[in-house]
Structure formats: C-alpha cells, structure tokens
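Input structure tokens:
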C-alpha cells in the first residue's frame, strides 16, 4: 500500500529539484554580469590561495597532469594545421563572396559610414583616424614594400607627380627648407664637411669623383630596346662555337670584364634577396622567432649566472661555518690579579695533563 506514496514522493522530489535547477539557471542568466564581476573580484582577493591550491593539486596529481599535457600536445600540430586550413578556407570563401557582391558591399559600407558620420561627426573622425594609425603601424613594412615595388616598375609616374607637386607648392617647400636649415644648421654643415673630406680622399687616392645622375625616359627606352635586341637575338650552334673560340670575330661582342661579372652577380643576388624578403611574409615571422629565441637565450645565460652566483655564495657560507667550528682558537688570557709578588700567569701551563693535573 506504500508504493504509490513512495512513487509520488519521488516524482515530487524530482519536480522540486528540476524547479530549483531552473530557478538557479534563470538567476544566473539575469545576473550574469554581476556573477562574473563577483568571481573576478574573488580571484583577485584570493590570488595567493588559488596559486597555492593549483601548485598543491599539480604536485599531488603530477602523473595525471603530465599525461593530460602529453595527450594535449600530441594532437597540437594537427589541430593547428586544421585551424590554419579552416582560416584559409574562410578567407577564400569571404574573398569569393566579396568578388561576387562587390557593388553591394560598397553600397553598404558607404551607407554605414554616412550614418555613423551623421550620428557623431567628431567621434567618427577620431575613431577613423585612430584606426588608420593602428593599421599603418601594423602594415607599415608591407605597404612600404608595395610602394617600392610600384616605384621600381614605373618610376616616371612618381617623378612626374613629384614635379607637379613641387610646381604647385614651390614657395611652401622653399620656406620649409629654409626653416629646416635654420633648425638643423650644424647637422647640415657637418654633412657637407664630411662629403668634402670624402671627395678629397677619393681624389688623393686617384679615384674618380662619385657622381649620381638620373636617366631620362627616352634613354631608358633606348637601352631597354637595345638589351632586348641583344638578348633575344638567336644564334646557331656554329656561330656560338665560333664566338667562344674567337670572341673578337663579332665587333658587337666583347668579353665582359671579370669585375663587372662579379658586380652583376652580387647585385642580382641582393635583388633576389630583397624581393624575397619583401614578398614572403614568413621571413618576418622567422625574424621575430629568431629575436625571441635570442632574447630567451640571453635571459637563460643571465639566469644561469644568477644561479651560479647564488650557489657560490651558499658554498662560501657553508665553508665559513665549517671553518668557524673547526678552526683552532687560542685559550683566553686570564686577567692579572695585580699582585706584584705573584708569579707571572704565563709561566704556569694551562694544560690539564701530566703532573700538573
């Protein structure tokens, strides 16, 4: 007869537990910010207790913790590769979507900027300027490399833009130059003196003066056409063999001096390296990794020196204590009793052995 009541009590208890669980969940949802702030404040107040607890737990469960770390690191490389693949797929998908909806995206951005500018003009401009500064600092090297490559491909466009700018702002640039000279007069004079001394040493050594000059666009076009005609000209095997045997056979063919060949190889190698450094971002990551490793190595040597100094100090202290315990000490001198008729105290032996015992 008691089974229905027991079943009813179990159902009521389960319902009550469920209601309490739902109430706690609703409370956590309503007070998520306050609970998060309370937990953060508690961790700050009990930071030392948390560290001690974690250290004690790690010491007590050392084998389990090490096993978990090994299991985590075993799949670390695979997880990183999968994350990179997901990121690359996401970038490709975003790029594909952008290419398909470029105009729509541009319209949305223009509308969004116009709305934000209308809501808070000063705040929007300040945020925009801060964002541009952060982006410039983050991508400065890549932007400069891209600009250098663009100038190398089409230098005449940059020179034309410079000439046009100078023509429009001649007086302003002259004033800036005069102001810069007045502010840095000593530095300018020092550079001029250094240049004159260098040219004097070159003349005394019999070297030609160092002169840099620009080449016009027409001359560059002529040089490019001549180079193309020379390098693209086809020759037969017989002509090539004859030229190798007798280079002076063709008046247009001259043996290139060895120093020019060496200079060309050095310049080509340097250009390839510069191009690789400018286009391959992995070298920047390698540079940062190398800097971090060098810093860790320097810190490790510093810490090793500290440990060695501490160990040397500890051993010295142990040696001093051992010497203090084992060093032979002279017996204390007895005070004179001020009796002139008494024998001198040093005439009596202080030993307790033999007949004087």
């Amino acid at each position: 007869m008691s089974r229905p009541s027991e079943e009813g009590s179990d159902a009521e208890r389960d319902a009550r537990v469920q209601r309490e669980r739902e109430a706690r969940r609703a409370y956590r949802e309503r007070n998520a910010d306050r609970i998060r702030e309370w937990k953060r404040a508690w961790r700050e107040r009990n930071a030392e207790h948390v560290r001690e607890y974690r250290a004690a737990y790690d010491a007590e469960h050392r084998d389990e913790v090490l096993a978990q770390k090994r299991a985590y690191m075993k799949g670390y490389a695979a997880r990183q590769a999968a994350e990179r693949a997901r990121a690359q797929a996401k970038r490709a998908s975003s790029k594909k979507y952008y290419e398909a909806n470029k105009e729509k995206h541009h319209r949305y951005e223009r509308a969004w900027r116009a709305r934000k500018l209308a809501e808070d003009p000063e705040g929007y401009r300040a945020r925009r300027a801060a964002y541009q500064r952060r982006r410039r600092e983050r991508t400065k090297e890549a932007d400069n490399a891209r600009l250098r490559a663009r100038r190398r491909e089409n230098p005449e466009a940059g020179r034309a833009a410079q000439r046009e700018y100078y023509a429009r702002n001649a007086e302003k640039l002259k004033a800036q130059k005069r102001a810069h000279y007045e502010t840095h007069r000593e530095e300018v004079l020092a550079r001029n003196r250094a240049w004159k001394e260098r040219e004097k040493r070159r003349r005394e050594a019999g070297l030609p003066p160092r002169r840099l000059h620009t080449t016009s666009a027409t001359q560059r076009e002529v040089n490019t056409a001549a180079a193309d005609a020379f390098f693209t000209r086809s020759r037969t095997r017989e002509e090539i063999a004859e030229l190798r045997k007798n280079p002076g056979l063709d008046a247009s063919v001259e043996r290139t001096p060895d120093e020019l060949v060496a200079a060309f190889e050095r310049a080509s190698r340097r250009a390839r390296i510069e191009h690789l450094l400018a286009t391959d971002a992995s070298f920047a990551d390698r540079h940062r990794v190398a800097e971090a490793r060098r810093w860790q190595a320097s810190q490790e040597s510093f810490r090793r020196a500290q440990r060695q100094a501490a160990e040397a100090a500890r051993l010295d202290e142990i040696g001093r204590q051992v010497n203090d315990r084992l060093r032979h000490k002279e017996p204390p001198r007895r005070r004179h009793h001020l009796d002139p008729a008494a024998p001198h105290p040093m005439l009596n032996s202080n030993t307790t052995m033999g007949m004087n015992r």
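The first helix runs from residue 3 to 30. Residues 306 and 312 are 10 Å apart (CA to CA).
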